[in-house]
Amino acid sequence: MSPSDRSRRLRGKLKQDWLAGVARTAAADADAPADLLGDYLTLLAEAAISGARPNEDDLAKVGADGRRAAHDGVAPGRAVNLYLSAAWRLWRELPGVVRSSDSEFVRGAADAVLQVVGDAVAAFVEAYQDERREAIRWEEATRREFIDDLLRGDADVARLVERAEPFGLDLTRVHQIALATTDAAAVDPQFTATTLERAVVTEFGDREVLVATKEDLLVVLVPVGERERKPDIGDFLRRELHRGSRRQRWRVAVGRPYAGAYGIARSYEEAREALVLGQRLQWESDVIHASDLLVFRVLGRDQAAMVDLVRAVLTPLQHARGGAEPLLETLEVYFASGAVATEAARRLHLSVRAVTYRLDRVRDLTGYDVAQARDAFILQTATMGARLLEWPASPLPA
User: Fold this and answer.
1) pLDDT tens digits, residue range 221-256?
2) Can you tell me the distance from the alpha carbon of 355 to that of 307, in angstroms, rounded to the nearest whole number?
3) For residues 307 and 397, is the Cβ–Cβ distance under 8 A?
4) Which of 12-21, 162-171, 250-259, 382-391 has the lowest mean pLDDT?
5) Are strands 250-254 and 287-289 parallel, antiparallel or unpaired?
6) What is the pTM of this model?
7) Is 258 helix (H, G, I), strand (E, B) or coil?
């Protein structure tokens, strides 16, 4: 029988539902939808019959099936197994249809089929990966846009509530925001966020929780409930971050808990302000709670009055030998030590005599004595104001 006669006879038998049966069996074997095969089996059969290779249009159709598999959430392993199982089953049954004793024909058919399998699977996988990458980019863009709107608090609330649902957030609940930052340039915020998210989800649950990055900050959103016994989010983040990178110092700021979409934005702004204030005040602790900085927020709201206070009380310290900074630091540490000179001396690595000498110089230059309660309050308040204004490193505003 000539090759052309053999091809005509085989094509006639392929008009039956044989290919459909192969597709159903392969789909059951791979646990994947049979319709993802598209024209793949026909391409294999044509290759076995005539040695034909698929053209660009044929491979484009296979690629479309790959994109559809990715869009429908079919696992890549199952999709590839479907294609390989279909090729194996078609070839296993094809010799029985061909009934050929011509070894050269069988060898040529096998070579042609293998080439089609390689081309088709490559086109399918490439399109599948392209679709997944596009989906991931879209999801990341959607997530980032949602987070920006959520933290800004000026978007359409109704629309924001609707967009929060896929992220497992109920914006009617009480949430609080924690922010973390480090000065280490070698830290990848996105990688750290991915690692941190696992720990946060394990501790706080996979709903009502969000871990993301914004600029150079790690942003963590957690729920707050009266009946829920959860660790303090600030202490929890400090432990987890230092566990992952002991060489870097992480600073964590926690906003107060609030209800609603605007409450999340308010908690976020408090946490950002706490980071800034903590840096200006040279806060010793790695964890700063916005609730601990309320007095500093009060001071900061009337900048004109604060500038007047610092100028009237502390600017005479600039006449001291070495400038105002050593005396200002001594005041700051002295008040932080509970007005105990020995403890202040220990923290400053000075003798007690040196500390008392500096405090006496403050009294002589300013007229305010830390030994007097009223004067001590004025000096402490002015010292806080100076740190908030970053004085004397920066000049006081006019």
Assistant:
1) 998 875 456 788 999 999 988 886 667 788 999 999
2) 26
3) yes
4) 12-21
5) parallel
6) 0.62
7) strand
Cα(105)–Cα(113) distance, integer angstroms: 12
pLDDT value of position 2 = 45
φ, ψ dihedrals at 212, nearest 5°: -150, 180
Task: Answer yes or no: are the C-beta atoms of 180 and 251 closer than 8 Å.
Answer: yes
Q: Say if residue 277's pLDDT is above 50.
A: yes
Measured CA to CA, the distance from residue 191 to residue 296 in angstroms comes to 34
CATH fit for domain 302-388, picks 1.10.10.2840, 3.40.50.720, 1.25.40.10, 2.40.180.10: 1.10.10.2840
Q: List CB contacts of 84: < 8 A, sequence separation 6 or more.
A: 117, 121
Question: What's the pLDDT tens digit per position in 259-272?
Answer: 888 899 999 999 99
Q: Which residues contact 296 (CB under 8 A, 6 or more apart)?
A: 277, 281, 384, 388
Instruction: Provide the angle, in degrees to the nearest 10, between the axes of the packed helices 103-152 and 157-164.
Output: 140
pLDDT by residue (tens digit) across 353-380? 999 999 999 999 999 999 998 889 989 9
Specify the length of the chain in residues. 398
CA atoms within 13 A on the CB side of 103: 0
Give strand ranges (E) for the chain.
174-182, 210-214, 217-223, 250-254, 258-259, 287-289
**What 3-state class would DSSP assign to 322?**
coil
Identify whether the C-beta of residue 140 lies closer than 8 Å to the C-beta of residue 130: no
Token pair recorded at residue 158: 């109704």
Q: What b/e readout covers 291-327, taking b as 16+ CB neighbours within 10 angstroms?
A: eebeebeebbeeeeebbebbbebbbbbeebeeebebb
Contact 153, 264 (CB under 8 A): yes
- Residues β-bridged to residue 259: 174
CA dist., res. 214 & res. 220, Å (int): 10
Using a 10 angstrom Cβ sphere, with 0-12 exposed, 13-18 middle and 19 or more buried, the burial of residue 191 is exposed
Per-domain residue ranges for the chain? 3-135, 177-296, 302-388
177-296 belongs to which CATH class? alpha beta
